[in-house]
TrEMBL record:
Its EC number is 2.5.1.21. The keyword Cytoplasm does not apply. It comes from Piscinibacter aquaticus. Pfam families: SQS_PSY (PF00494). Keywords: Transferase. GO terms for biological process: terpenoid biosynthetic process. Signal peptide: none annotated. This is Squalene synthase HpnC. PANTHER family: BIFUNCTIONAL LYCOPENE CYCLASE/PHYTOENE SYNTHASE. InterPro entries: HSQ_synthase_HpnC, Isoprenoid_synthase_dom_sf, Squ/phyt_synthse, Trans_IPPS_bact-type, Trans_IPPS_HH.
C-alpha cells in the first residue's frame, strides 16, 4: 500500500483507546516513511534499495534493543517504544519492507496468486499489527483481517489504475488480461475499450468479494475499534461503487469520495449487522 493506502486505516483517531494511539501512530509512520523511500521523489532504483536496506538495518537494531543510525530517529524512537511495550511482531514489519523493495523493481504480476503474495506482505501486516494491539489473535479474525487489507489494497490499485499505468506499473494480473484478449502493453498505453472496462469490472468484483468476506471482523474487534473499522470497510466498498459509476473507466479518470459519499458510508457503517453464525461470540 502506498502512502494514501495507509490512510485507509485508522491512525490514532479519537475512537482509539488513548494507550494505543502511540503504537498505532508509530506503525503508521514506519510504513509511510518506508513507502516514501520506495516511491517518492526521483531517486534511482539503486538509491531507493540502498535506503530501504539502511532502514531495515535500523529496524533490526531497534527490535534487538540496540541503537539505530539516527537517520530516522523520529520513526524508530517511538517504534522501539511500541515494540518494547506491546511486543509488536517484527516479522510483520520486515514483510512491509520486503513489499516496498519489491515495488522498486517489479511492475507486472503474472497471475492472482503472485499479486496476492504481494498483498500478503504489503497490506495484511498492518491489519495483523492492529489486531495484535487489541489482543485479537484467533485464526478466524486474522483471516478476516487479511481479506479486508487485501481488498483495500486491490481497491486502491483499481482506483489508481490510470495513475499507476502512466508510471509504468500494472497490477492487474497478466493472466486476467489475457483471458479478456488484452495485453498489458495496451493498458500501459492507456487504451480504453469495452474489454478494458470489463476487465476492471472483474477486478472490482474480486475486491468486493474479499471485502465482504472480511467485513464480519467489525463485530469481533473489541470496543470502539470495531466501530472505527466499519467506515474503513464501507469506504472501500463505496470506492468500488464510484468506479462502477464511471463505467469502470479508471484508466481515464480516478474516482474520489465526496461529502455525500461520506454520509452514506457512515449510514451504512451504522447499520452493519453480523451474519448468523459469523464469528461466534462476537459483539453485535
Amino acid at each position: 500500500m502506498s502512502v494514501d493506502h495507509y490512510e485507509n486505516f485508522p491512525v490514532a483517531s479519537w475512537l482509539c483507546p488513548p494507550a494505543l494511539r502511540p503504537p498505532i501512530a508509530a506503525i503508521y509512520w514506519f510504513a509511510r516513511t518506508a513507502d516514501d523511500l520506495a516511491d517518492e521523489g526521483d531517486a534511482a532504483p539503486d538509491k531507493r534499495l540502498a535506503d530501504l536496506a539502511a532502514y531495515r538495518a535500523d529496524l533490526t537494531a531497534t527490535a534487538a534493543g540496540g541503537t539505530p543510525s539516527g537517520r530516522w530517529a523520529a520513526v524508530f524512537a517511538p517504534l522501539g517504544e511500541a515494540i518494547r511495550r506491546h511486543g509488536l511482531p517484527t516479522p510483520l514489519l520486515h514483510d512491509l519492507l520486503d513489499a516496498f523493495a519489491q515495488d522498486v523493481v517489479k511492475q507486472r504480476y503474472a497471475d492472482r496468486a503472485e499479486l496476492l503474495e504481494y498483498c500478503r506482505r504489503s497490506a495484511n501486516p498492518v491489519g495483523r499489527l492492529l489486531l495484535h494491539l487489541y489482543g485479537v489473535s484467533d485464526a478466524e479474525a486474522l483471516h478476516r483481517s487479511d481479506a479486508i487489507c487485501t481488498a483495500l489494497q486491490l481497491i486502491n490499485f483499481w482506483q489508481d489504475l490510470g495513475v499507476d499505468t502512466r508510471r509504468g506499473r500494472l497490477y492487474i494480473p497478466e493472466s486476467d488480461c489475457a483471458a479478456r484478449g488484452l495485453r498489458g502493453e495496451e493498458l500501459l498505453a492507456g487504451v480504453d475499450s469495452p474489454a478494458t472496462r470489463a476487465l476492471v469490472r472483474q477486478q472490482c468484483d474480486w475486491a468486493r468479494t474479499l471485502m465482504r468476506e472480511g467485513a464480519p471482523l467489525v463485530h469481533r474487534v473489541p470496543g470502539r475499534a470495531g466501530w472505527e473499522l466499519r467506515p474503513v470497510v464501507q469506504g472501500g466498498l463505496r470506492i468500488l461503487d464510484r468506479i462502477a459509476q464511471l463505467d469502470h473507466a479508471t484508466l481515464l479518470r480516478r474516482p474520489t469520495l465526496r461529502a455525500p459519499d461520506l454520509l452514506l458510508m457512515l449510514w451504512r457503517a451504522l447499520w452493519m449487522r453480523p451474519a448468523p453464525g459469523a464469528l461466534a461470540g462476537s459483539a453485535a
